[in-house]
Batch of 2 targets.
Target 1
Amino acid sequence: MTQWPARLVLVGAGKMGGAMAHGWLEAGLAASSLTILEPDPSPEFASLAASRGLALNARVGGPPDMLVLAVKPQSLDGVAPQIAALAAERTLVLSILAGKTIANLKARLPQARALVRAMPNTPASIGRGVTAAFAHAAVSGEQRGWCEALLGAMGAFYWLADEDAIDAVTAISGGGPAYVFALTEALAVAAERLGLPAELAMNLARGTVEGSGELMRRERTTSPAALRRNVTSPGGTTAAALAVLQGAGGLEDLMVRAAAAACARAAQMAG
Ligand SMILES: NC(=O)c1ccc[n+]([C@@H]2O[C@H](COP(=O)([O-])OP(=O)(O)OC[C@H]3O[C@@H](n4cnc5c(N)ncnc54)[C@H](OP(=O)(O)O)[C@@H]3O)[C@@H](O)[C@H]2O)c1
C-alpha cells in the first residue's frame, strides 16, 4: 500500500514543484495533507490549488513530517532562513535542488537530521520522468517509503548507494531530455540537407523520435540494441548510416564525452 506522509509542505511550486504537486494528487495524496509555499503561483497552479482546495501560502502550524524543497538552487540562501524552523529533527527534508549537497542543506537547515537528495527530469511533468535519489543514513524505512511514493508518482524511481552518483545521474537522465531534443533537431537538419522542406523535415524527425521512444517503452523486454538490429538489414540503407554513427568519434564517443562534461560541471557547481 502506498505510504504518504501525514503532513507535507512543498516549498516552491514552479515548473518542477508544480508538476510534482499535480502528480502526487493524481496518485492519491490527500489534498488536506499538503501545504504549498509559493510567493508567485502561476495562474495554472493557482487554479489547481483552488479546484483541489490546497492550502496555498497558508500558515504552517509547526514542522511537518516532510518538507520538499523545489526552489531554484540560487534561491536557497534566501529561502532557508524562512523555512529552517519547519525542518525539525523528525522532519524528512527532500531536496531536488541541482548541485546542493546534503552537507550544504544541513548547514542551512541546522535542526534537520533526515535528508534526501533527488534528481528528477522534465518528463516528470507528464508522469514519465526518471528520478534517482540518495538518502542520508538518518532516513528511516518509513521515510524512504514516502520518497518512493512521492517520487514514484512522477515516473520511474531508483535509489542511489552514494551521493556522488547524483552528478552522473544529472549528466544522464537530468540533462538527457535535452540531448534527445538536440538529436531531433540534428535529424531535422539532416533531412533539410537531403532536400526536404523544413516543415516536413521537422515532422519526420519529431515523429521518428516520439515513435521510437514509445516502441522502446512498449517492447520493454527487448534491448535497444535488438530494436536497432530489427531495422538494420545487412548491407542496407540503415546499415550505411550506422557505419558512420558507430564509427570512431561517432555517437557513443560523443555521448561519453558529453556526459563526462556534464558530470564534471555538476561536481564543479556543487556548493
Ligand atoms: N527543471 C528541471 O529539469 C529540473 C530537473 C531536476 C532538478 N531541478 C531542480 O528543481 C528546482 C526547481 O526548478 P524549476 O525549474 O521548477 O524552477 P522554477 O520554475 O523557477 O521554480 C522555483 C519556484 O520556487 C519559488 N520560490 C522562490 N522563493 C521562494 C520562497 N521563499 N518560498 C517558496 N517558493 C519560492 C519560485 O518563485 P519565483 O518565481 O517568485 O521566484 C518559483 O516558482 C531547481 O532547484 C532545479 O535545480 C529541475
Target 2
Amino acid sequence: MTRREFIKTSSVAGLCLTFNRYSATVEQNEENRMNTICEEPREIPIAIECDICVIGGSCTGVFAAVRAARLGAKVAVVEGNGFFGGVATAGLVNIWHSIYDTTGEKQIIAGLTTEVVERLKKRRAVLVRKPSAGSHFVLNTEELKIELDELVMEAGIRPFLHTRFVSPILKDGELTAIAVEDKSGRRAIKASYFVDATGDGDLIARMGLPSYKRDHLQPPTMCAIIRGLAEIKKNHPDFSLNQAVFDPKYPNALKKGFLWSARVPGAQDDTMVAGTRVFGVDCSDADQLTKAEIEGRRQVRAMCDILRKNFADDESVPLAALPARIGIRETRHARCLHQLTEIEALNGKRFPDAIANGTYRVDIHHADKPGLTFRYLDGTEVYVVPNEANKTGRWRDEVSEDPTFYQIPYRSLVPKGATNVLVAGRVVDADAGAYGAIRVMVNCNQTGEAAGVAAYLALDESKPVVEVDAKELRKTMQKQGAIII
Ligand SMILES: Cc1cc2nc3c(=O)[nH]c(=O)nc-3n(C[C@H](O)[C@H](O)[C@H](O)COP(=O)(O)OP(=O)(O)OC[C@H]3O[C@@H](n4cnc5c(N)ncnc54)[C@H](O)[C@@H]3O)c2cc1C
C-alpha cells in the first residue's frame, strides 16, 4: 500500500522543523509512481541566516537579489547551475526585446536591464538591433554569466551555485528556512522573506501554496550554436535555414514548429538557433524533463545532419555548442491575488500597482499544432507556420487609439495565502495569452526587481507581502532606476 510520510527534521540550532507537505519519494518507474521510501529525520547545518533568500538565479532571481541587497538587506541567492542567468545562459537564449513602447520613441523599461546592457556594451558583448518599432539586444550570454557574477558580488550577496532548493521548512505554518542540497550535503538557509524565481514554482508547489498548470504548456526547445551558416549561405545563395530543417524531403526533417536564430556577438560565424521543440512534455516533472533533454538533443543532431550532408561542402559537423539545459517556456504558475489576462495586456490596462511595462507581443508556441500565433497591441494577429504563407487577421476591431504598451501589477507576484513569499519570472499569474507576452526576459527582469524591492519593504516594516504599499513600492523602484508609469 502507498505510504506518504511527513518527515520531521531538526537543525543544529535545535529547532524542530516540520519538513514540508510533500514526502521525499523515490519514483520507481512510470507504472509504480506512488511508491515511497521513508527518509530518516536528521539535523542539518544552517549555511546562513539572512533577511531575504531568492531561489533561482536567472536574471530574474539575480535582479531580485541585487535590488534587495542594494537597499540594505542581507541576501542569499540559490542557483542549481554553476552560473547565473537561467534560460539566457543555461539555455543559450540571447535576445532581450524592446525597451521602448510600440511608437519606438518612449522608453518604458530601464533598471537593471539597461544597466546590464550598458555593462555588456563595454565588453562589446551586445549588439543593438533596430527593427521598425524600438530596438532589441543580442547578447553574448557567456559574457552575461560573468557580468551577473560581478553584479552579485558587488552587491554583497551570498551566492549558492550548484545548489538545489529541496524543500521548505515551516514553523507554525510559516516558511522560516529552506533545505538545499549542494556538494557539502544537505544544508538550511534561514530567511525572513523568500522569492520563488525557479521558473517552475518549486518553492510554492512544495509549500502547498495554490498553483496551476495549463492543459497545453508551451513546448520546450533545445537551442544550439551552429557554426558556419554564413559560409553555407555564401556557397548556396538560396539557402534558408528555416526551409531546410523543416523540408519533408529530408527523412530526418524536424516536425513543423518554428525556428529563429541570432548571431552570437563577438563570434566569427556562430549562430544561436532555436528550432527544435519537444511536444507534450511537462518539464517540471523529473522524468519528462529527462525525456525532453534527450529528445531535444536528438532533434539538434537531425538538424545538423541535414546541414552537413546537404549544404556543408566538406561535410563538417556544424554543431559548436549545446546548452546546459533545455529551454523551458512554461510549466507551473502561482495562483496570485490577480491573474493578468490577455485582454488586460493587449488593451494596455493601467494598474495602480504596476511594477513592469512591456510591448512584446502575445507569442504562443502551440502545443497542439505547428507554428505560433502572434497578437499585437494594434489589434492585429498572425499565425505563422514554417514554409507556409502567414495567416493574418485581427483579434479585435480597430479603435481610435491603440495602446502602446501593457503593464504587470504587483498583485500578480503575490501568491494567495503567502505571508513572506513572492514569485517572479515565469511563475507569475497570467492567463495563456497574457503569459505569451510577459514571459520574455525584459519583462521577467522587471518582476524580479519588483519582488526584490517588495521583499525589502515588507522586511523593513515587518509586514506580510500582501500589505506592501504599492505607492511605496513604485516610488522605491523608481528611485532605484526603474521606469514607473
Ligand atoms: C527556446 C526559448 C526561446 C526564448 N526566446 C526568448 C527571447 O528571444 N527573448 C526573451 O526575452 N525571452 C525568450 N524566451 C523566454 C524567456 O527566456 C523565459 O521565459 C525567461 O528567461 C524565464 O525566466 P525565469 O527567470 O522565470 O526562468 P528561468 O530562466 O528558467 O530561470 C530559473 C532559474 O532557477 C533555477 N532553478 C530552478 N529550480 C531550482 C531549484 N529547485 N533550486 C535551485 N535553482 C533552481 C534554474 O536553474 C534557473 O537558473 C525564450 C524561452 C525559450 C525556452
